[in-house]
Write a structure and sequence with these properties.
By secondary structure, the chain is of the alpha+beta class. 28% of the residues lie in helices and 29% in strands. It has helices spanning 32-35, 52-65, 83-92, 106-110, 154-166, and strands spanning 2-3, 18-23, 26-31, 41-45, 74-79, 99-101, 114-117, 122-126, 129-133, 139-144.
Length: 167
């Protein structure tokens, strides 16, 4: 697995982006700034829709963090899948949060989580990672997977969200 760039550290500004988003209204272009009023924002980068660990991860976010909407927070899943695939994945798994289509891997590059899997000869996909961003667009939590099958520490993400929401 090859990685590019360095991910933003805690207390760094979160890189801005605009991309196609699959949400309850269908497909549209959205920006990170569109979600900042709903801070904290959990940015969950994942390699591929419909794959085992990614499905488990996003369904765990659905089950554990779905109520975040009630506390003025947002979850955004981000992958390099096509928007239509993400819309179908979102529907099949009843995900209550938007999925961002990073088709050119520019968001992954900006966040330092663009990855190449040499064994499969796949370039430009997301390294599994989680960032929590506050209302000012500052990274308050960062987690980076060491390997594609590793899931985040959901309790640590939840604690970070609570801390940001309490500020």
């Amino acid at each position: 697995m090859t990685r590019t760039n360095e991910p933003p550290a805690v207390d760094d500004d979160a890189p801005a982006f605009t991309a196609p988003v699959a949400d309850e209204d269908g497909l549209a272009h959205q920006s990170l700034t569109d979600y900042l009023p709903d801070a904290p924002i959990v940015l969950a980068f994942f390699p591929a829709a419909f794959s085992g660990t990614c499905t488990t991860e996003l369904c765990t976010f659905r089950d554990r963090f779905g109520p975040l909407k009630e506390s003025d927070a947002a979850v955004l899943g981000i992958s390099t899948d096509l928007p239509w695939a993400l819309a179908e994945f979102r529907e099949q798994e009843s995900l209550p949060f938007p999925l961002v289509a990073d088709n050119d891997a520019s968001i992954c590059s900006a966040y330092g989580v663009r990855t190449t899997y040499e064994r499969l000869r796949i370039d430009g996909i997301a390294r599994r990672s989680v960032f929590v961003v506050d209302g000012d667009g500052v990274v308050r939590y960062r987690w980076l997977a060491e390997h594609p099958g590793q899931e985040p520490d959901y309790d640590a993400v939840s604690t970070s969200v609570e801390e940001v929401a309490g500020d």
